[in-house]
Design a protein that fits this description.
Layout (H helix, E strand, L loop, with lengths): L1 H28 L4 H33 L4 H22 L1
């Protein structure tokens, strides 16, 4: 749980930094040319993609540490359980 809180804190710090950068850019938007506005827009889009990638990595790392089973593992376990159930039922008849 402590690890998850640490990772979440890092994610929030990253988001806060991105928001701060966005505020700085927005304050400079007034009085800029269309070309400059396009460049700022592209920069923001790039930073957003980077932020999304980082948050995705944080979530993946957190889930891996929590040892959440994958879908394929759950399917395999269900198949094994059904097989064992059939064997037990056959033995009790």
């Amino acid at each position: 749980m402590e690890f998850f809180q640490q990772i979440w804190g890092q994610a929030l710090t990253t988001v806060a930094g991105a928001e701060e950068e966005a505020q700085k850019l927005l304050s400079r938007v007034q009085g800029v040319s269309q070309d400059e506005a396009r460049k700022l827009s592209e920069r923001l889009a790039s930073q957003r993609k980077d932020l999304e990638r980082r948050l995705e990595d944080v979530v993946k790392t957190s889930v891996a540490h929590l040892k959440v089973p994958r879908h394929s593992e759950v399917v395999q376990l269900n198949a094994r359980l059904e097989s064992l159930t059939r064997r037990v039922e056959a033995l009790t008849k």
